[in-house]
Amino acid sequence: MKKIFSLLMICTLVLVTGCGGGSDNSTGKLSVMLGSNVVSLDSAKCTDSASFEVITNCIDGLMQLDADGKPIPAIAESFDVSADGKTYTFHLRDAKWSNGEPVTANDFVFAWRRHCQTSDKYAYIMGNTVACVKNADAVTKGADPTTLGVSAPDPKTFVVELDAPVPFFPSLMTFPTFYPINEKFYKSLDEGTYGTTPETFLSNGAFVLSEYLPGAANIQLKKNADYWNADAVKLDNWQYQVVTSSDNALTAFKNGTLNVVGISGSQIESVQKDADLMKNLHSIPSGSLSYISFNQDAKNNHGGALANVNLRLAISNAIDRESLANNFVANGSKATYTAIPLHFAPNAKTGKFFAENQQQFAEYVGFNVDKARDLLNTAKAELGKDTFELELIYANDSGNTTVKVAQAIKSQIEENLPGVTLKLQPMPKAEYLDRLTTNSFDVAISSWVPDYDDPMTFFTLWTTEGSEICEHWSNAAYDKIIEDCTTGALAADYDARWQAMYDAEKILLENAVIAPLYTGSNATLIASNVSGLEFHVAGVNRVFKSAQVK
């Protein structure tokens, strides 16, 4: 397996310079595997990576990421920042929607106000734990949307007022939650139909939808002739195919049905034996962190058993993460012992990744069966219980790797913690997300892909007001640190803010709010005649604006 990993890492280096060599299995049309169904093409409502990816290929925001993951102009041709870092003035280029209407500053004003009004899971990102848009938190809670700190003094000028400086604000502008929506078009549609068909979805980006229905396994896209940067777009027509089985994906790649697919770790050895296939194999860091969420609500889990920190710590320390990553995920993903993934968020002054020291919290996160059993015995005494039957939920339509990970975790926990039983409960992603948000689970396999290149994209998940706090945990000291780092005294002090985030991470892990598992990597087969694909560890992982098939 180490040999496989070494070869994969070599392929990663090849990827950034192009996909030369290997099999040309393509008919000339790009056909890409999508590992799960699109949940929504409404940028105010979607939360999943598949939906974000499709939206990003069809709509441009103010900024976009270049091939190196740095924010560069998109709809905003340029921008100015005030001396105090709290006002951004974006100057928009000449751009059109796919119905011929001009893209204006009001499209951003309308979209941002609507996003806050929806109060959906991603509305928080505009508030004072992330973007710090003036009055965003108040609007999310029902205040007049016209009080949101956004304005359009003229059609080509979009002004954003912040409550505090946000050093990564330009990077945030590449994320779909901040994309525009044409107000006139949106209001012309029947309620709830926006983004459900090509006719109810408007593009201003590189591609438009030509075929799409919610839940469909096939999504067809074509070049947007009205795109402001149409000359740089090489693809005329291409498609997504939803394929949740990596076995089916590999077969489709071999027969030419798909020319960009993800495969599981268990398939890597067989691919390695095929010289042509091996030339097409690339290990692509996803930036994601997979972890276990513990529901601490007293209404669940044997009358609130998982509210007991020793039970949570016992479960965390009974998991062999190295075995999990190497033997069951087995695609280049790395065991992780921190709440922040590996190879993410480099310090601007030192260049070191935030999670470079994986032993920093070894006191709380590790693999130690004796320690785990001691913690379990303490929990049993505190709770007056000898046995715990907990339900582990996970999405079973996001690829078979998750299924294998769930089975491995069940085996490890039940072997290492006498008296603890995990009942596996697979379900479609939509139901899984609903179970998380409606407090209907005990333990869940979760994953988070960073929205921007800063540790705060993770830490805000677990604040009391965080929209993702499905763990039902609240800690005043933790909240205070996050507040200080966003809108408080530390927001403008880079070094102090960086250290304070480690203090917040310690609180998370000593309380076992989550149990980190591994930093994700995607084993991907790319046909040799496909080039120009861009992969990012923050925000949307895959972008196809520059892709081409020769």
Please describe what this structure looks like.
By secondary structure, the chain is of the alpha+beta class. The chain has three domains: 2-39 and 199-284 and 522-549, Periplasmic binding protein-like II (D-Maltodextrin-Binding Protein, domain 2); 59-187, Dipeptide-binding Protein, domain 1; 287-520, Dipeptide-binding Protein, domain 3. The chain is 30% helix and 21% strand. It contains 18 helices and 21 strands. It has helices spanning 2-15, 49-58, 105-118, 136-140, 169-172, 183-187, 246-254, 268-272, 275-279, 301-304, 309-317, 321-329, 369-383, 400-416, 429-437, 456-459, 476-486, 494-510, and strands at 30-34, 63-65, 71-73, 76-81, 87-92, 150-154, 157-161, 207-211, 218-223, 237-242, 260-263, 281-294, 334-335, 388-395, 420-427, 443-448, 514-526, 530-531, 534-535, 542-543, 548-549. The strands form six sheets. Strands 11, 12, 13, 14, 15, 16 and 17 form a seven-stranded mixed beta sheet that branches. α11 runs antiparallel to α13 and α17 (476-486) packs antiparallel against α18 (494-510). It is globular, with a radius of gyration of 23 Å. The two termini are 33 Å apart. Mean pLDDT is 90; it is low at 1-22.
